[in-house]
């Protein structure tokens, strides 16, 4: 296990860059939604969506690499707000929340469309999901929840392992908190390997769910979904900062 | 929602007092194990165990009261180490880990007893669980895991709610991170109420599991279990501090 004192700095920097990229990507996505509906619009939107997925994959790869040296830091990151940390599932968002978001967007667009229809106007495209798309999303939801539950079970097992050998015997025979113990270090390193591997699996599930969702949506719906997803993420961070500030955390 | 800037201080103080009490209680429990096996030993041990449960209940009551004003802080406490935070289930230990601990202690005592038996000596009493006790513990385990799963479902629901109304619509129409929005505050306060209520339920499950486990054990077994539990908790905190220090976190 690496012991660099700069771990925290690197982790924080990786996250800050990602949040900044989210803002840049959001601007680009919003800009793309203003493109006129000509022949190559869908191609251009698809390319943009693929670029966003690539950014997410690169971020995941980088944090997976960093987490191998210090996995615990990712389960309650110091660089996230308390509000965000209270919403974490295995160091990130729940993959099923992508699906919940699409349903929420679909519902809210149908609602606003009714008003616009009466006024002769129209907005986004997530209110126009076909029955085939809804069926695919429903299948994706069932599959995702099942895989989430499986990984939650792995997490539960790893958390319970702490109340078992070798930790229990080491703690029992421990004479004091400050003593140095090679057995503890080895046992914790071994346990951390399991945690890092589970984190990678959870990240893979997040990516694959996102990709599958996007493959179900039309290019303009996918952009609409990514816009809402990034806005929600950025807002959650901003709302959390405000609450942390109010409670004396900076 | 209260807005005292001293929230963080009060929460931290509550935790530090609890950790100190754990050390004091541990000394008292260890002292009690040296009592000679006369007629009133079991009565004295039982009284001590009840005192420890009362301390736990008082701590839970205090943090439940504090968490109503700032529940997010308890899901990744700044006063805990990253190692501890990565092991959290709804802002505390998994109730099922009490049972896992008893099984681990039982196993390790049977192992060490074999050596001692051959040497004509003996140690703790958790290696002497009767088949009736093992059956009761097994029933308690099934029941606890079921209740844990139920609460995990409540947590999943609350986490997914963030990707739904009203948050999605507020985020979507948000013009920037710094804007003030009464709708956000109300929605987050409402959501926090659900989180605080779930935290109280999880704490009640922790207490009831602990009490039921103790009611199954003999007084000396219960003391043995509490000693191991407190040692493990104190060691985890100490091990986590060491790792945080190594990774540049203080």
Automatic annotation (TrEMBL), chains A, B:
InterPro entries: Seed_Dev/Stress_Resp_Reg, TGA_domain. It comes from the Eukaryota. GO terms for molecular function: sequence-specific DNA binding. Residues 8-246 form the DOG1 domain. One of its GO terms (biological process) is DNA-templated transcription. This is DOG1 domain-containing protein.
